[in-house]
Write a structure and sequence with these properties.
CATH topology: Hydantoin permease
CATH superfamily: Hydantoin permease
Keywords: Membrane, Transmembrane, Transmembrane helix
CATH class: Mainly Alpha
Strand content: under 5%
Low-confidence stretches: 343-348
Number of domains: 1
InterPro entries: YkvI-like
Number of helices: 15
Protein name: Putative membrane protein
Order of helices and strands: HHHHHHHHHHHHHHH
Organism: Paenibacillus algicola
Mean pLDDT: 81
Shape: globular
CATH architecture: Orthogonal Bundle
Distance between the termini: 23 Å
Length: about 350
């Protein structure tokens, strides 16, 4: 029973780390999948397979080498010198990602709760600083509560969408994009999100006592991510192209289902953003502790201030510019993990 609970905790943490601002709000799904029409069903399937394979490899390899942070894993993959350089690049990427998470929280408060944009930013920062005092246990606990609720809400939205006249658009909608761009999108998306999940999945894998538990947690988590991707794509496709005008498209869909559903979904979106933000800050702090002698709380506070300043550019503009760029930078890392994992898996 303890192993089964641990598998679920790993799976929920994996899902919760990936289901951040862009995913939970719907912006990522629109940009990387839905805009490509019916082909998105196949690209989502490709992403799901990659999430299962590479997520499991990342955690089992981290356990095998006893990695304390994602920098330890990078040094193992690329060597001491080049691994340190890769970790510095990822540090920049993760700070950019956290800025997007923070901007997403501000957009949720502004667009759905009618608070000031800055209010959402400050509440998220203050709450994260308090939660981070408890470390990994708080991350596991948050995701064990939030992810099951998000899965149930996704099922509700799919059920309601199935009754709409345009419910079949996910298999009939066409796009005018080239095939290379269609098939590059899931690779960029998966590579970026795997790097985003590294700060939590690496120490989580290394702190788990069983390789089988880690592997099954990765498989279950990757499958859950795929199911949430396809459900969000299904709901968004039925409402295209009008739904693309919203900063929080999934929040707009929830609003159509009634005020009570909207409130619950908006709260869940914020909690997903919040949990991902906390997880990323935690991982960055662990990595910087290996490079500096500063107190962890001072490191955390400094990172949050930087993210706050960057979040002033807004959510959708950051998402559309930074995510594809980050994805390209992360493709190289994902390819290395894939090749390294294939040979290392025979020894695990």
């Amino acid at each position: 029973m303890n192993k089964q609970v641990r598998v679920l905790q790993i799976a929920f943490t994996y899902i919760g780390t990936i289901v951040g601002a862009g995913f939970a709000t719907g912006r990522e799904i629109l940009q990387f999948f839905t805009q490509y029409g019916y082909l998105a069903v196949f690209t989502i399937l490709l992403s799901t397979v990659l999430f299962i394979f590479l997520g499991s490899k990342m955690m089992t390899l981290s356990r095998a080498i006893g990695a304390a942070s994602y920098e330890d894993l990078n040094r193992h993959l690329f060597g001491e010198r080049f691994g340190s350089i890769i970790s510095l690049i990822m540090l920049i990427i993760l700070i950019g990602v956290n800025s997007i998470m923070l901007a997403g929280a501000g957009s949720v408060f502004m667009e759905n709760l009618h608070f000031h944009y800055q209010t959402g930013l400050l509440i998220t920062i203050a709450g994260s600083f308090l939660i981070l005092r408890r470390g990994m246990s708080s991350i596991l606990y948050m995701n064990s509560l939030v992810v099951p609720m998000m899965l149930m809400m996704s099922l509700l939205i799919v059920t309601k969408t199935a009754t709409l006249p345009g419910a079949d658009r996910f298999i009939t909608m066409t796009g005018d994009h080239s095939l290379p761009s269609v098939w590059l999108a899931p690779l960029l998306y998966t590579a970026f999100n795997l790097v985003m999940a590294m700060p939590v999945l690496v120490p989580l894998g290394s702190q788990t006592g069983s390789t089988k538990v880690v592997r099954f947690g990765g498989i279950l988590g990757g499958t859950g991510i795929g199911l949430m991707l396809i459900s969000a794509h299904f709901a968004l496709s039925a409402r295209m192209p009008g739904i693309s005008q919203f900063e929080i498209p999934m929040g707009s869909i929830a609003q159509q289902l009634g005020w009570y559903v909207q409130i619950v979904y908006v709260i869940l979106i914020f909690l997903e953003i919040f949990s991902t933000f906390v997880a990323n800050i935690y991982g960055i702090t662990l990595q910087l502790q290996q490079r500096t002698t500063l107190h962890p709380r001072l490191i955390t506070l400094t990172i949050m201030i930087i993210c706050y300043l960057m979040s002033q550019f807004g959510f959708s503009s950051l998402l559309s510019i930074l995510y594809p760029l980050f994805g390209i930078l992360c493709l190289f890392w994902a390819a290395r993990l894939s090749l390294f994992g294939l040979s290392a898996s025979r020894k695990l």
